[in-house]
Amino acid sequence: MRSLPGTSRPGFPPPAPAAPPLRLLIADDNPVVRAGLTALLSDGAGTTVVAEARDGREAYEAALRHRPDVILLDVRMPGVDGISALPHLVPLAPVMMLTYSHETETVREALRLGAGGYLVHGEFTTEQLVRAVRDVREGRPQVTPGATRALLTALRSGASAHSDPNFLDAAAISEPSTLSRLQSPMGQSFRSRFRLSEREAEIMDLIASGMTNQQIAAACFITEKTVKNHINRIFAKLHSTTRSQATAKWLGVA
Predict the structure, then answer these.
(1) Which long-range contacts (CB under 8 A, 24 or more apart) does 17-21 make?
(2) Pairing mode, if any, of strands 22-27 and 70-73?
(3) In whole angstroms, what is the distance from residue 217 CA to residue 220 CA?
(4) In what order do the strands lie in the sheet containing 142-143?
(5) Measuring CA to CA, which of 6, 56, 88, 232 is 20 to 30 A from 75?
């Protein structure tokens, strides 16, 4: 006897329901970054952003209220920063550092305090970010090349897993299946396509961190006029007309 259209055939189980999207909380004081990540991770990628926060305190309150599956946490934020908030967030959900900071001690401390991954802006694609979120949710650590270099620097300086039991195992750090997973096929950051000079990349880094032209000039020991000239060339290469647009492209959230 033939089954009616639209009904399951006898002996075949009904199709499994689609898995619900992973619920994410994004904590970053930069509204451009938050908006960009929310757009990227709420666009049919099997993830959805349920809350945003501007600092560690807001992240903790939002995590208690929304109970996300994964927390994406910046390091440098006003008020309660990411490192200070991390011990309070880890018991609530897996935490992946998603930040611009890749100083050796910062990376090491974040992983020591329980971060499930450490991704540096500009070192991953959208697809890789989504995969990293899922891996961290499943307990598989993810570290991008910039953070890896910081950890290897610490190892070469004499910090070893044998002398510090809380330090991430060196074998795990250098495991190719972990480290190469987030690298592009060419083994280079996608930023290389912008063809910025070393000085321009340095200044773009400072722009993305929120510095003014005056602050950049002081940090680089150059005049504000020189800073403006660099910024004009940077905007041309990034096909941007504002600092927000340039920052979003530079951080990979546009």
Answers:
(1) 19/46, 21/46, 21/47, 21/48
(2) parallel
(3) 5
(4) 47-53, 22-27, 70-73, 95-99, 117-120, 142-143
(5) 232
Summarize pLDDT for 61-118 with one digit per residue, the tens. Answer: 999 999 999 999 999 999 899 999 999 999 999 999 998 887 888 888 898 899 998 9
| 127, two tokens | 């697809």
Where is pLDDT greater, at 87 or 160? 87
Over 90: is that where the pLDDT of 6 sits? Answer: no
Cβ–Cβ < 8 Å for 55, 78? yes
Residues in CB range of 50: below 8 A, 6 or more apart: 23, 24, 25, 66, 68
- Among 159, 183, 158, 161, CA closest to 170: 161
Q: How far apart are CA 36 and CA 252, in angstroms?
A: 8
The one-letter amino acid code at 177 reads: S
CB 63 within 8 A of CB 25: yes
Q: Which of 217, 208, 211, 218 has the alpha carbon at shortest distance from 247?
A: 208
